[in-house]
Amino acid sequence: MVSSIPKDSQSVSELQEFYRQMVLIRKFEEAAAKAYSVGKIGGFLHLYIGQEAVGVGSIAALTPHDYIVSTYRDHGHALARGLHPNPLMAELFGKATGISKGNGGSMHFFDKNAHFMGGHGIVGGHISLAAGIAFASKYKKEDSVTICFFGEGAANIGSFHEGLNLAAIWKLPVVFICENNHYAMGTPEYRALAVKDVSVRAYAYDMARDHIEGDEVRKVRDHVKVAVDRARRGEGPTLIEVSTYRFRGHSMSDPAKYRTKEELDAYKKKDPLMRARHELELGGIKPEVLDKLEIEIQTQIDEAYAFAESSPEPPLSQLHKYVYAEDK
Amino acid sequence: MAVLTYREALNRAMVEEMEKDPMIYLMGEEVGHYQGAYKVSQGMLDKFGEERVIDTPISENGFAGIGVGSAMVGLRPIIEFMTWNFSLVAIDQIINSAAKMNYMSGGQFPMPIVFRGAGGAGGRLGAQHSQAFESWYAHCPGLKVVCPATPKDAYGLLKSSIRDNNPTIFIESEVLYGSKGEVPEQEYTIPLGLGEIKRKGTDITIVTWSRALSFAEEAAIILEKEGISVEIVDLRSLRPLDENLIYESVKKTNRAIVVEEGWPVAGFGAQISHLIQKNVFSYLDHPVERVTQMDVPMSYAANLERMSLPNANRVADTIREMLR
Ligand SMILES: Cc1ncc(C[n+]2csc(CCOP(=O)(O)OP(=O)(O)O)c2C)c(N)n1
């Protein structure tokens, strides 16, 4: 593994922070997987394990004013945004203390204050929502940028094309981030994409493009930052393809028999967490320090689990609430 | 008779029809290599090859349109929606193209296409993955809408739908895929528009279809112990609708209740209730009642989901009220 050694203490501590976030996401999801297997979490559960560097790197390129739009694979994005694991875990458990008050579940995390504009369940449907949020920023002359995550599978749906076209003609401040994990559920990219490189589709909309590997968190951050700055300057959207891999199946119910063990093992060697840890050690951080960090995070996740478990279910009176916005 | 699951019965119907008619193909997301998201098309890729069992990218609008265009020139597509939730992305093709093609071309283009896939609510799938849409499609002239509740019906109705020269909306119940039932060994079809009395009774008629049949049957068993005799009409298809079966039953029992999985407002139960009061009003001893999903999007929370969905107790309670 070719590693970039963090050069100064600032880049060491920055990488350490990214490492902390990535470990937080991984341990959060490992705990969620466990809770799912004992029936504490229902519905679908799509894990982000393996892709952590994409979310953490991308979101690190944003300010708190910027907006994030996510898919049903939204846990990592929410944690990278800095949302506390407690309400996120409680949401998975369907509790009143959940980030969406128990009405959302795994696929629908929302936090208005944090400009976390939701996990969305219809593949690609949210791409035009992201363009709409960016449209509003431009209309109100605010300088927020919206980033929108989606998979390479979503790049085949109409709303992807419609959303990118509108964003391009109106030069909306939006960055489209395709997390290409090479499979849409059981469909490998070569059976779904006429042109394998999603990022070249940007040419069709006269849009800036970029294409990077997603295992190096600081590199992701640097590239996304270029696109975010471009958007903020009013120079329009960018389509970035980040190559990554999910270590688990599409969701908890998918044994992922459509891919080989060799392939999975090859990608596991490029685990972004391992890579960051290796780089930190090269940068002079002692393994004990990192071990301690991991234990602290595990404690935090255990607390989130206990919080979720002990939280009350939503009151039955909530059933009819929120259907319409309440009059002020 | 063989005991098959609902999913196996559907599979058998498709396989038999495809063996007979090379113009029939199956298209959708994950229908081939993955063997179907709900395994309804298990084994079909091996049997028919990639030319007839066709995986698509996630592009409901696009592949629904391919289906409609190909049906205009003689093919007989079966288009699978992974679930009906995602058919909304293709609703333009279904309604504006498929449903109207024959009419607006003055009878030049029959539309022998089946749109099929998993429907219904439950399983804690949250607001975007948990809803019953048959009322939406039943709204549209030009479409046929079929909602089988048992493996036996699923087999016979799917064969009829595939042979029909009209666009058929064939909504399978996600919750019922694993349910088992007897399916005759010999080939048979069930005409679209023919309901069935699933239980005989004298005090009240429950009109229902698809998964809601199970709520009706459970309620009937509960009420039987209290001396209330329930008749159950399973419509099996909403368009065409077996109106006479409903009327004959209501004439006998003098009371009717509709049990459905969908939302109440403009739901199909409202249509049935209207038809009953219009056509057999003088036989009624009580206004027609309805038990439906609650008028809210689905919550993920287990308790709220339970509360949202219709169930046997709600049916039984309503019927007790009606007989008081
Ligand atoms: C319109 C629509 N079609 C199908 C689905 C079912 N589905 C959910 S995720 C998924 C695969 C998406 O793959 P991709 O966009 O590559 O994202 P990834 O899951 O790899 O992150 C499918 C088919 C859906 N939710 N919405």
UniProtKB/TrEMBL annotation, chain B:
**EC annotation?**
1.2.4.1
Q: Which cofactor does it need?
A: thiamine diphosphate
Show the GO MF annotations: pyruvate dehydrogenase (acetyl-transferring) activity
The EC class name is: oxidoreductase
Q: Tell me, what's a Pfam family for it?
A: Transket_pyr
Q: Which SUPFAM superfamilies match?
A: Thiamin diphosphate-binding fold (THDP-binding) (SSF52518), TK C-terminal domain-like (SSF52922)
Q: Which InterPro entries did the record assign?
A: THDP-binding (IPR029061), Transketo_C/PFOR_II (IPR009014), Transketolase-like_Pyr-bd (IPR005475), Transketolase_C (IPR033248)
Q: Does the keyword Translocase apply?
A: no
Q: Which UniProt keywords apply?
A: Oxidoreductase, Pyruvate, Thiamine pyrophosphate
- Please report the name of this protein according to its UniProt entry: Pyruvate dehydrogenase complex E1 component subunit beta
